[in-house]
Structures are given as structure tokens and as C-alpha cells.
């Protein structure tokens, strides 16, 4: 945390105080001076009819009453978030500029130390809050609560442009940005643009080579937390999404939707040599290698080569993974369970 950041962060309470003075102006100060002869010290003669809270000044009551209304006249020009008071907007704007608390493991920065501490739990791997419906675990109780809405099926927040519905308002707002086509955050290394700053920060990890999010079951590492979550579902064995046509089950909704295209015939690619059908062109190209002797995917650690990238990935684990599976009849141990069957 450098000197400039410390001074700027320290001056925040003073800045908010000055903003309040600017908001109400000299006339408000004269009003307060006029009130002084009419009140005793500590007396709260102005009360709110909505909640009963009392105030010593009429101006304070007026500021408070705004909270009971839906009026939020002060909006942030960077993210669109609105506030009832100008001082709250001024405090919020620091989020877009000053982030003095930085994570040593992944480089993400935060405006408050509490936010950094909550983030650092992610790197510890501890997830004490588990969903009793699907087994997915979370580092914070709030994240689990938000996740459970998915199982309820309730999606009250609907996009007016495409009709897509969401469980949370913040998810809807993130989605609506895609309709604008605006991508203000660009990577200075490759030029790729993003609609959100978080997307750019996650993308930059690709160039750095850092993969701070690792799976505690197989050791596979990922650049962003979302990809780790998607990967971990495969270890759970839970397959919530099933095909209505053939009954095949899937761990991910996207995989199920791709599979459905086989039954509908929509955008299905067929092999001209054997007639086998694929839902993506890339899978068809990989399949076609089975009809040839070409093995373009080579291991950098040994001389072995493979026709498909997935086969290479499975092989590469043999150089790094522990031998987790042990034969019950002899002392042989393997890193893939299926090897023990032969």
C-alpha cells in the first residue's frame, strides 16, 4: 500500500463530510443556526413517521426520509449504480479508483481489508458451506444462499430485450450490458475487449501463466474460479441435467444442450468416412484423425503422441499425478483406475 493510496484512503471520511456540506450549502447551515435556540442539547424533536427514528435537526430528518422512497438521484457514471445521497455516491466512486488491499496470490485488489480477507478464503480451499441439494460447497454463507435460489426455479428478474430471466438483480444488470455491445475494458497485450473489468482481470492471468485456482481432488489448476467450479462438478458424480429423448445425463447444462442437437439435427456435423455425427465441428475434426495414422498431439516430456488432445491431457497426468489407486491383489498402484482392470 503506497503513500498516495494511504493518504487518499485516510481522507475518505473528511471527503464525505465536505460533500455533505456542499450538498446542503450555506442555507442549510443558517437553518441549523436558527434551530439552536429552540432545542436542548441532545433533544430529538423531529421523528420519522415511517420508522419512528428521531433527529435533532429537520435537515437530518429530510435526508433520512429519502431512504424510505425509491428516489436515487445520484448515479455513478462508470457502473450506473444509484444512491440516495451525494455523499454515498462520492464514497462509492473510490471503488473504481483506489484499491489499496491486494491479494499476494492472484493480484486482485480491494477497497477494504474485510473484502480482501473474504477473498483470501478462496485460496485456502476451505468451503464449509455445502448445498444439501447438489453438494456444491462455498466459502461464504451468502454465496450458498444465493446458489440455493437456482434450485427453487424462481427467476423474478427478466430482461426486457430477450426475455432471459435471472435469480438475482445483479445478474440481470450484468446481462443487460451485453445487449449494448459496449466492451470498454481491453487487454493491453492482445487487444481482446471485455464488458466487465473482472473479465479483463481474469483474462490477464492467461498471459501471466498464473493459475491460482487448483482442484483439491486432482490438482488441475485454472486461471479463474468459475472454471474451477465447473470442473469440480465432474468429481461430484452429480448429473442434474438429463436428455428427455434418450435419458442420458450430464453434469453441465451446456453439455446437455449440445447433446440435444444430435436428436434435433440442428447444426450437426457428420463424418464423411463413417457417418458418425458430432455437435461441434472441432469434435468432428478430432474424430477424423482416427481414420488416419496422424498423431499431432505430442507430449513434451516423452516421445508419446496422440490423435486427440484429451488423450494427451490424460497421459500428461502420468508425469505429475500421484498414484491414487492401488490394486487389492498386489502392490501395483496407478493414477487411473481403469489401468488396474488390465
Automatic annotation (TrEMBL):
<keyword id="KW-0238">DNA-binding</keyword>
<comment type="function">
    <text>May be involved in transcriptional regulation.</text>
</comment>
<keyword id="KW-0804">Transcription</keyword>
<dbReference type="GO" id="GO:0005667">
    <property type="term" value="C:transcription regulator complex"/>
</dbReference>
<keyword id="KW-0805">Transcription regulation</keyword>
<protein>
    <recommendedName>
        <fullName>C2H2-type domain-containing protein</fullName>
    </recommendedName>
</protein>
<feature type="domain" description="C2H2-type">
    <location>
        <begin position="74"/>
        <end position="97"/>
    </location>
</feature>
<keyword id="KW-0862">Zinc</keyword>
<feature type="domain" description="C2H2-type">
    <location>
        <begin position="157"/>
        <end position="184"/>
    </location>
</feature>
<dbReference type="Pfam" id="PF13894">
    <property type="entry name" value="zf-C2H2_4"/>
</dbReference>
<feature type="domain" description="C2H2-type">
    <location>
        <begin position="269"/>
        <end position="296"/>
    </location>
</feature>
<dbReference type="InterPro" id="IPR036236">
    <property type="entry name" value="Znf_C2H2_sf"/>
</dbReference>
<feature type="domain" description="C2H2-type">
    <location>
        <begin position="101"/>
        <end position="128"/>
    </location>
</feature>
<dbReference type="GO" id="GO:0000978">
    <property type="term" value="F:RNA polymerase II cis-regulatory region sequence-specific DNA binding"/>
</dbReference>
<dbReference type="GO" id="GO:0008270">
    <property type="term" value="F:zinc ion binding"/>
</dbReference>
<dbReference type="Pfam" id="PF00096">
    <property type="entry name" value="zf-C2H2"/>
</dbReference>
<keyword id="KW-0479">Metal-binding</keyword>
<dbReference type="GO" id="GO:0031519">
    <property type="term" value="C:PcG protein complex"/>
</dbReference>
<feature type="domain" description="C2H2-type">
    <location>
        <begin position="129"/>
        <end position="156"/>
    </location>
</feature>
<feature type="domain" description="C2H2-type">
    <location>
        <begin position="185"/>
        <end position="212"/>
    </location>
</feature>
<keyword id="KW-0863">Zinc-finger</keyword>
<feature type="domain" description="C2H2-type">
    <location>
        <begin position="241"/>
        <end position="268"/>
    </location>
</feature>
<feature type="domain" description="C2H2-type">
    <location>
        <begin position="46"/>
        <end position="73"/>
    </location>
</feature>
<dbReference type="InterPro" id="IPR013087">
    <property type="entry name" value="Znf_C2H2_type"/>
</dbReference>
<comment type="similarity">
    <text>Belongs to the krueppel C2H2-type zinc-finger protein family.</text>
</comment>
<dbReference type="GO" id="GO:0000981">
    <property type="term" value="F:DNA-binding transcription factor activity, RNA polymerase II-specific"/>
</dbReference>
<dbReference type="GO" id="GO:0000785">
    <property type="term" value="C:chromatin"/>
</dbReference>
<keyword id="KW-0539">Nucleus</keyword>
<keyword id="KW-0677">Repeat</keyword>
<feature type="region of interest" description="Disordered">
    <location>
        <begin position="23"/>
        <end position="45"/>
    </location>
</feature>
<feature type="domain" description="C2H2-type">
    <location>
        <begin position="213"/>
        <end position="240"/>
    </location>
</feature>
<feature type="domain" description="C2H2-type">
    <location>
        <begin position="297"/>
        <end position="324"/>
    </location>
</feature>
